[in-house]
Design goal:
331 residues, alpha/beta, 43% helix, globular, binds 5'-O-[(R)-(carboxyoxy)(hydroxy)phosphoryl]adenosine, binds zinc ion, cytoplasm, transferase, tRNA processing, Peptidase_M22_CS
Length: 331
Amino acid sequence: MRVLGIETSCDETGIAVYDEERGLLSHVLYSQIPLHADYGGVVPELASRDHIRKTLPLIQQALKEAGCEASDIDGVAYTAGPGLAGALLVGASIGRSLAFAWGKPALAVHHMEGHLLAPMLEENPPEFPFIALLVSGGHTQLVRVDGIGQYQLLGESVDDAAGEAFDKTAKLMGLEYPGGPLLAKLATQGQADKYAFPRPMTDRPGLNFSFSGLKTAAANVIAAEGKSPEVQADIAASFQQAVVDTLVLKCRRALKEQRLKRLVVAGGVSANTSLREQLEVLLKSLKGEVYYPRKEFCTDNGAMIAFAGFQRLRAGQQQDLTIGVTPRWPM
Ligand code: KG4
Ligand code: ZN
C-alpha cells in the first residue's frame, strides 16, 4: 500500500509519499514563514491562499521524487484538524477530490496523531505502550499510547501551549516570528539561573500545564530591564529553563504513574536542544528510553500525515465523500 499525505493545517505545506514496504519515498515542504513574518504571526487568509497556490505543484513534485505515478497511489491522507479552518479546507478539498478522481480511499488525519506517530518513521521506532509528550505551537499534552488510535489524555495545558509561550515571549523581546527557535538560540548565550521564573503547576499533583503566568513573569522582567543583548540572553535562558524544568517534571510524573519507561516527544518544541538534553538525563536515570522524530519532522510536515493515514487506511478506515474539517478536534 502506498499513501499520499497532505499537511496544510497552519503555515507549512507538506506533502509526502509513504510505502508500506519501502517506507518514506519522498517528502517535500514549503514554509510560508517569510510571508507572515512582517505581521508577527500567521495571517489565516494569506495562509489559505498560499496553500492553494502550492499544494498541487508540491504533490506533483513529491510523486516525481518518489518515482511514481498517480496510479501507483492507493490512498490519500490529509490533515482535517486541529488547525486554521481555511488552511485545513485547502488540503481536505484537494486530498479528498484527488482520491475521488483516482478511485481510491481517502482519510482525514488528526494533526496531533501525525506528530505523535512521527518518531515511528525513524530507525529505532518505539514499541507500544509509551508516554507521548506533544509540544507544539497549539498543544501541550501528555498522552498514554497503547496502540494506533488507543490514546488516553493524561494532562494538557489549561491556557497557552509551550510553543505559544516561547513565541509570545520571543515577540516581547523583539524577535521575529516564529520566535521559539530564535529564543532558544539566544538562550545558549545566557545564564539560566539569572532569573527565578515560576515552574507553573509543579507544586501540586496532576499532569496539567499552565504557561501563561510564566509568559507574564517574563514580560515583566523584559519591560523592566530587558534592553541590552546580555540581559535578553539571560532572560531567554532562564525562561527556557523554566519551561524545560516544568515539562521534564511532568514527564517524570507521568512515566512513574503509568509505570512506563518509554517516552516519545514530538511537535515543534521537541526540536529544542535543551529539552532533549534534559529528557535524555531523565530517561537515563529511569533506565528507559526517549524517542524523537528527526528534527525536520518535529515541526509540521507531510511525512507524519502520510504515515498516520497509512496506518488507518491499512486498518480499513476511510472517509465518505463529504469534505469536512474540524478546526478544534480533541484527540
Ligand atoms: O508542530 P509545529 O510546527 O506547529 C504546530 O502544530 O503548532 O510547532 C511550532 C512551534 C512554534 O511555537 C515554534 O516556536 C516551536 O514549535 N519551536 C520551538 C523550537 N522549534 C520550533 N520552540 C522552542 N525551541 C525550538 N528549537
Ligand atoms: Zn504541528
